[in-house]
Amino acid sequence: MSDHPSNDDHVLPDGGEVPRETISIPSEVELPRLLDFYELQDAEHTQIHEFYENLRDGRFTTTECRECGELHFPPRIVCPECTSDDLEYVDLPHEGEMYSFTEVRGTSAIGMNEDTPFVAGVVDLGQIRLSARVDDASYEDLEIGSEVRLKIVEIDGPTDQDRVFYRFTPV
Amino acid sequence: MPQNAAIVGGGTTEWGARDATWKDLAQEAGKATFDDVDGIEPDDVEGLFVGAVQPERFAFQSHVAPLTAELLGINANKMIARTELACASGQAALRYAWLAIAAGQLDVALVLGVEKMNLGQEYMPEMQSNMTNVLDREFDGVNGLNGPSHFAQFAQRHMHEHGTTREQLAMVSAKNKNHAAETDFAQYRKKVDVDDVLDSYPIAPPLNLLDCSGITDGATGLLLVSEEKADEIGAETAAYITGSGQSCMAGNSINNLPSMTTWPQAREASQEAYEQAGIDDPLRDIDVAEVHDCFSISEIIEYEQLGFCEPGEGGQFVEDGRSQLDGDVAVNPRGGLLGCGHPLGATGVSQALEVYRQFAGAVPSARAVAGDPETGLIHNLSGSGSVHSVMTLARDPQ
User: Fold this and answer.
1) CATH number of residue B28's parent domain
2) What are phi and psi of B389, to 5 degrees?
3) pLDDT tens-digit map of B154-179
4) B253 CB near a chain A CB, below 8 Å?
5) Domain that residue B19 falls in
6) How many domains does chain B have?
7) Which residues in chain B have Cβ-Cβ distances shorter than 8 Å to A118?
């Protein structure tokens, strides 16, 4: 009744077959650098490169506003209190106390799922509180108020940059 | 004088791990919505508001509001927008639609929340990366802090500061999941008791697996119209928006959260909504509350911040049964995020639709709020808890 070809009829009206060809896409796609959680830390990529340079040198620092005196964390390029961009890097304590924490036991993000279980929490450094991973401890080893100290991790990853980040470890 | 705006119906897909694409979900929810409302067709819609958080990551698709217009045959000739406010995106879409109608810019809006999230266990790290990116990726996400591990710390601090018990957390989960057992689209429809929650895997201690909402595919829509249009189509039931408040602190990163036991922005947002709605005593004046129980601890803090009880007493509030269907305020009769799952962009839309359905008496009797409810509230938090959105609804116009 219909002039349309049936579903199993692959023959064109002119009698030829519908042309077909296999095309290939890569069987694996490399993890793009953008999907790892560490920023490119040099002056060509971020204006807070001094934070990372200091950390690489063993100093834990953040910005403080020369105009209004506000201490920031994370480091900024503009003061969120007064919008001044006259900021300087100042040293933060290397020791603090656990304010809160948990242990990541379920699936975690790309690039860190292999690390589970791991402890993550909030560390109170006095002037600021910050989120951080705590190495060398399980959930049961810690209490609110447990003392921890700074640890620097060097990132061996998919760029040739010498990237670093901070974590903490029990005192 | 702003125009009144009312929800006059809506519909939903089934929620859960769906064999469906983002576009499938949008179409299913759109059809369910138009099927539910007599007198409004796609051609009548002037504004389209789509709540969607991460279609770019989960479905590799952006510009999703116009795509939805195409799928549903809508010429949104007055306003079109996608809203992204993480877990509050659905309520944000509803709020924009309400503002547009209140301002007299349009009379008929479709509000649709759509999220495709559950890509299967193989891609769970991708999913967790996306959730982690809701915080400050450079300084929080890098530490592996996602939903469960972030809210676990609120639970730990609340237990530490206020003596809230593990059992009280479990009571929230059991209550909501038992409601969800009666909700036909919910992701989790199995009844559980407090011991089941306590015995479930401690996925981010002190939170267990059953203290957590799900990774959910789902879409829900509703039609929001001016009072004049509601009268014109002869809507039998309407849920009028009577107040809407929102508050965001100057902070999103965990590094700048002043408290991990209170949400002052939830208090501010709710007070703003109560003032607009003329609500003096929320416990007396609100019959049904759909609050953001992304984790059991969240609902306990919300009792306190929404003014249902004093700070620190949220655990006792649930233990005393005051948030049960026949309690002082029925909280999460739909089953909450804990029971229904949490397709981010759809959640707030679904909460509002639940309030409408409770007003209409269109829910199974096993989870119907006692005493013919006439007033309702929806609440969403987003991100680290730095933003809160609260909307009040009533069966009659103000």
Assistant:
1) 3.40.47.10
2) -130, 130
3) 999 999 999 999 999 999 999 999 99
4) yes
5) 5-119+215-394
6) 1
7) 144
